[in-house]
Every structure is written in C-alpha cells, then in structure tokens.
Design brief:
The complex is a heterodimer. Chain A is an all-alpha fold. Chain A has helices spanning 9-18, 20-35, 44-63, 71-91, 99-104, 111-138, 150-174, 177-192, 199-204, 217-229, 235-259, 263-266. In chain B, the strands form two sheets. In chain B, strands 5-6-7-3-8-9 form a six-stranded mixed sheet, with helices on both faces. Classes of the chains: A mainly alpha, B alpha/beta. The structure holds adenosine-5'-triphosphate and magnesium ion.
C-alpha cells in the first residue's frame, strides 16, 4: 500500500471509514469538555431547547398577542434553526482551531468538520426529548401523522448543513474573515428564513417568489407544514430541498477536496 | 528479501512565503489601494530533487543545519505535506512523532487522551484496547491515568505521549528531535525502546542534531543542506562531512 492512499473515491471512502474511531473520539471529547465540571451536565442539552420553547410560548401567547403567530409554528422552526446556525458558525473554526493536529499528523481532514456537524446533530436529537412533548402539548395530546415526513426533511437538511460546514471550514483556512462574516450573515439569514412567519403569510403578500433566493426556506416551510399545519411538504419544496441538499454537499466536498492538501502549509 | 519500506525519488517541495500576508478582507482592500502593502508571494524550494530509501528494520538519520528542510522531508513522508514533484512510497503504516502528545486536551483524563491520540493515528477501538495496558504500564501512570492531564507534570505528559507513539506498532516511525526533550533517564528509555522496535522490524527515520547519537545508532545517514541532499550513506562519513562544513 502506498501512503497516503490513492485518490479514487472508493479508496478515500474506505480510508475515511478506517478513522471512524477518531470521529467518535472527537465528538466524545467535545461533549465531555462541554459538560465536565458542570452540575447539570448533559441536562443542559435539554434545558437549552426547553427554555427556547417556554420563552417563545409565553411571549407569543401572553405578551405579543399576535393572533397570526402561534407558538408551535415558531417552535417547529426554531429547533432546526439552532442546529443549523450553531453548526455553521462553529464549522468555520473546525480546521483552524485544530491547526496543531493538521500540521503534525496525517488523517482524513474531513473528519474535523464532520465531527462538528455530528456534535451539534446529537444536541439536536437530544432536543427531541423536549420537542415531542411540546408538540403533543399544543396538539392536545397527540402527534400529527405528518411527522412521518420529518426524518426525510431532516436528512436533506443535514446534508445541506454538512455541505455548508465542509465549505466554510475549508474557506476559513484561507480567509479568516469568513468566520466573522458567517456570524453576521447568520443573524440576517434568520430574518430571511420562514421561522417567525409562515407560507400563508408570505403567500398573502404575494412574496413567495422572493423565498426561492433563500435555499433554507423550503426546509423551514416544510418543517412548519409537517409540525404545525399537519400537511405534507409542498411538492415544489421537496424538489427544492433535494436539489439544494445535493448541490451544497457536492460543492462542499469539491471545495474541501481541492483545498485540503494545502491546509498544513496554510495554517 | 529487502524491499524498501520508504522509497522517495526526485522529491521537490516548495513553499510560498508571503510578505505582508493578506489574512483579512481589510488587508485585501488596502492592498488594492497601496501597492507597497500588497501581499507579495515568493516561492522557494524547501527540498530539491531529494531521494531516500529506508529498508525494513533500518534506523536512518537525517542531519543538517537549521532550515535545511529536514522536518519538511519528514512531513512529506507522513503525507502531511504534498510535494510538487516526485514520488513518495511508504509501505505500511506511518506514525509521525513530530511532537509528543499532539491533540492532548488538558481537561480530559490520561485515559481519554490515550484513546483520542491513538485514534488520531488511525487505530480502531479493539486495537486501542489491546495496547492500552502496555501503554499505561510503560508510561508508569497506573495511579494517575484517570486524572485530567492538566494536573500532570511535564514529565508525566511526555511519558504518556511517548508511550502511545511507541506502542502503535507502525511499520515506519518518524522521529523529529523529540529526543531533545526530557531528562537523561527519559532519553535513555526512549533510545532503548526505539532499538527494541527496530529489532522487531520497525523502520525509523530520525531527525536529530545530536551527531554523536546519530553516528552511533543509525545504519545510514542523509545529510541535507540548503534544501539539497549533500551526502547519503555511512553515518561516520556523513557526520564527518557535516562537521567539516560547520567548521568552514
Ligand atoms: N508552512 C510553511 N510555509 C512556508 N515556509 C515553510 C513552511 N514550513 C517550513 N517552511 C520553510 O522551509 C524551510 C525548511 O524548514 P524545515 O522545518 O524543514 O527545516 P529543518 O531542517 O527542520 O530545520 P530545524 O533544524 O531548524 O528544525 C525553512 O526555511 C522554513 O522557513
Ligand atoms: Mg525541524
């Protein structure tokens, strides 16, 4: 065997698989470091979404008194949004904060952004422990059947997020500003994404065309559909999600593959 | 049969040095306005036309002045750097020891760091579990293995890192001046262990400024100066040529 291995995709995939213990260890490290020394430990992963849900419910129900906005509608989007926003913001540091490793040991560099994505994905899955009871609470004790679509939306959303993370981690290695740019952009994207408003609201203003420019909007329209409106995702949104998730993943992988050999020199 | 474990031919590696390096967009804009502060890229060859062969179970030394390209050569062998030209063939697994305890996290215990560090070298869980007891015993850390390593002394930290590296059972061990750290006893222990590995068939590529040790231990020595290979062969001769160069 030559080392490092050749560059055919199957060879690379096999090589990546050999390092799954590393991926596991890195995620375990992040989780341990995060909670070690805190009294509530991993319960923070539940308290975080719980506080989000409670705060949004109370504010929307009793303070803002906006008839149009219901708590569950916002809760449907806010939990996946936190996953996306945290992953993307942190992924900019995946490579540069591990400069020491990259410069001194050879291992598949993809492991680093991937561990960031999976770390936040685990937090996201933990949030379901409070999310599902919240849905039942607002739906009078039952779960909408349209939740069966949820795993599909999640899978596509995951792939979109992973693609973005690969791209951003590589790009930040060459241009450090991308890290700060991402932080600012995320804040603006939040308002440009249907989280605090819904498809009917957008449609009533005749603005649906505007949302084709935001790749995230089909995902969040769909989350609201299956959780709040109890409807399947709209077909055009399904197609858009599929296209965007594939496009983003391919773009992220391509940029990463093209630039990764230079990481050790650049850092 | 003496098939070469490492085989390098016609290796060229260049670096880009950047004066006024553009690291931010602000600097990029300034560069557009003011040419004196624009980034100037200058590439230079850190290695030119280097060849190297290491046989199974050989200990091969690399010597040369500061900045001559020794560490660069080692990192090309490890796959960390991609050479511009030439071929690097390594038959088997490589364990680079460019620094001891790479990736150790101060908040994690010795045991947790052991798993993380070994995984960085590509071992899977059963493999790590198999060498775990030997690592802990060799590092003499039985008492402290479940303590966060931020509470370790420098010596304990080094012992753990070294112990992991030498228990990975790689075909090729790359060692970059790590013998310089640690006290006399530790150095003795390191050398002893490396000789042991060597006799069990591991090839060792050793970068060192300790000429006496290189002369004594290595089977073959490469002398690199100014990115070029000056001499390859008999250790005594290589060291003599190097000493002569240093004197002149
Ligand atoms: N990432 C990098 N970017 C630009 N230049 C680099 C980089 N890494 C090394 N160099 C340059 O390459 C040359 C060779 O460096 P190298 O570290 O291989 O030297 P060395 O022989 O190991 O020296 P020493 O004995 O001091 O360790 C040096 O001039 C160094 O400045
Ligand atoms: Mg060096």
């Amino acid at each position: 065997m030559t080392y490092p291995p050749g560059s055919s995709l199957t060879q690379e995939w096999r090589y990546l698989l050999r390092y799954r213990e590393l991926l596991r260890s890195l995620i375990a490290k992040d989780l341990k470091v995060k909670y070690r020394g805190s009294y509530l430990g991993f319960f923070w992963s539940l308290l975080n979404p719980l506080s989000l849900i409670v705060v949004y419910s109370l504010v929307l129900k009793f303070i803002m008194d906006v008839r149009q906005i219901e708590p569950l509608m916002v809760i449907a989007g806010i939990i996946p949004w936190v996953f996306f926003a945290n992953t993307v913001t942190n992924s900019t540091e995946s490579i540069i904060s591990n400069a020491n490793l990259v410069k001194k040991i050879f291992f598949p560099r993809e492991i680093l952004p991937l561990s960031t994505v999976l770390f936040h994905f685990i937090q996201f899955l933990l949030a379901f422990v409070v999310f599902l009871p919240a849905v039942m609470f607002f739906k009078g004790g039952r779960l909408p059947w349209t939740l069966l679509y949820y795993p599909l939306i999640l899978l596509l959303h995951w792939s979109f997020t992973a693609g973005a993370a690969l791209f951003l981690s590589a790009a930040t290695t060459y241009y450090k500003d991308i890290r700060y740019l991402t932080e600012v952009a995320i804040m603006m994207v939040f308002w440009g994404t249907p989280i605090l408003y819904t498809y009917p609201m957008v449609a009533s203003k005749g603005l649906t065309w505007l949302f084709w420019f935001n790749p995230l909007s089909p995902f969040f329209f769909s989350y609201q559909n299956v959780v709040h409106f109890e409807q399947p995702p709209r077909p055009e949104h399904l197609i858009a999600m599929l296209l965007w998730s594939i496009l983003m993943l391919v773009l992220g992988l391509a940029v990463f593959r093209k630039t990764r050999d230079g990481f050790a020199e650049e850092l | 049969m003496s098939q070469n474990v490492i085989e390098i031919s016609g290796l060229w590696k260049s670096f880009v040095v950047r004066h006024n390096r553009t690291e931010s967009l602000k600097q990029l804009f300034i560069g557009w306005l003011d040419w004196r502060r624009r980034e100037r890229r200058q590439s230079f060859w850190a290695l030119t036309d280097v060849g190297l062969q290491v046989e199974r179970g050989q200990m091969v030394g690399i010597i040369g002045p500061n900045g001559s390209g020794k560490s660069t050569l080692l990192r090309c062998v490890a796959g960390i750097l991609k050479p511009e030209r030439g071929e690097v063939i390594v038959r088997g697994r490589v364990a680079p020891m460019i620094e001891i305890g790479v990736g150790f996290h101060p908040e994690l215990t010795g045991e947790e760091n052991l798993y993380l560090n070994a995984a960085l070298y590509g071992l899977d869980r059963p493999q790590i579990e198999a060498i775990r007891p030997a690592i802990i015993e060799y590092a003499e850390l039985e008492e402290f293995i479940d303590v966060p390593i931020k509470n370790y002394s420098t010596g304990m930290y080094t012992r753990l890192g070294f112990s992991i590296a030498v228990h990975l059972q790689p075909e090729v061990l790359l060692v970059d001046e790590i013998l310089a750290v640690g006290d006399e006893a530790f150095q003795q222990k390191c050398l002893q262990r490396m000789m042991q590995l060597k006799s069990s068939g591991t090839s060792i590529l050793l970068v060192s400024h300790d000429l006496a040790k290189v002369e004594k231990l290595c089977d073959k020595v490469y002398l690199i100066a100014h990115s070029r290979l000056e001499f390859a062969g008999d250790p005594v001769k290589a060291v003599a040529i190097y000493r002569e160069k240093l004197a002149s």
